[in-house]
Amino acid sequence: MGVITGLHCVTCGSIYGPNDVEYTCPSCGPRLGTLEVRYDYERMGKTLTRDAFAKSGHESMWRYLPLLPIESEEHIQPLRVGWTPLHSFPHLAREFKLSSLFVKDDGQNPTASYKDRASSIVVIKAQEKGKSVVTAASTGNAASSLAGFAAATPLETIIFVPKTAPEAKVAQLLVYGARVFLVNGSYDVAYDLASEASEAFGWYNRSAAVNPYLVEGKKTGAIELAEQLDWHPPDVVFVGVGDGSVVSGICKGFAELQLLGWIDRLPQVIGVQAENSAPIARAFAAYDGNDVWFEDIDAHTVADSICVGKPRDVVKAVKSVYANGGRYVTVSDEAILDAIITLARRTGVFAEPAGAAAYAGLLSLVRTGELQGKSAAVMITGNGLKDISSARKVVGEPTLIEPTLRALEAHLP
Ligand SMILES: *Cc1c(COP(=O)(O)O)cnc(C)c1O
Ligand SMILES: [Zn+2]
Fold it and tell me: How far, in Å, is the centroid of ligand 2 from the Cα of 25?
């Protein structure tokens, strides 16, 4: 278990002890003052080797326990989170003129999204802190994931989702036994309500960005990717971006591996946003290495998980990708829907729109030719079954027939 040396404010640089503050930097406020967990890396470097993970016996993200901010194994849920498959597709790599192409399928997590990596940590933190209620605002996945991981614990889960959340995600919440509030408004307003409620009633808040421990879970996808490739990570890694926590986590994972000397080069992380939901991409374009300038927008995209106009982790998402040497790209809704289909038909991996957005980002850079000869990985952050209505918009209808061979023959070439 990692020894935390401090929680660092991403804007003013103030350092807090883990018991001094719960969520964000008091002087910068919740939006600018998100905190980054730092550890005693020098000690880690002396006591840990990268071979230790394989020997840990955990075929889950708990193999990285020495790099995670939890105090004991007591509250770890038996659900197998992380250590998701990494598939290689040489036929596509050849076609795209890449040296290799990998797809990491995080849709195979217990509640079918990347969010499980963070929820599993938060459920432990809540119990370590003696909380009885956990809450979250969510476009859907963060909440269903929290509800799933809290299900077998004494924690009560209270959730705020926009009333437009996809039906499968709402069903997951109800099945896991969460108390669900469908908020009459966007995700951005549901978020503010959850924050007010958590403050008013003392609930532990898992909403994106404010809780510094979320990114710690989210960094494990990067560490896994590196380990699965024998510590030779690819040149570029694509991921869909909404609030900006997943992309920040992936950058942090690679940065820590580099700090520990376990990888010799940093993969470039490419954050992919939907064209009409891209405030982070815009803030990144305006960033010059000093203060992060950003403007909230009214967001619209078919990719509900990244439909975020008021991104809560914008400072971290801009600074961490800048430090990583990566960048942002935007893709249209049409390209996202098309990517769901082409990804599924070429690889067998069915992604929800926000997951397919990362693949659409890859395709857009393949088209410009700038990835030629490089190795690339795409993080598929959510399973396609979570939002079938988006997928069905672009696949046409099946054929209805009478149950006879003759009827069938009439439809065959
Ligand atoms: C939450 C989510 C993202 C983006 O993560 P952020 O931290 O909001 O940027 C991408 N894909 C899926 C499927 C998600 O659920
Ligand atoms: Zn601060």
Answer: 5
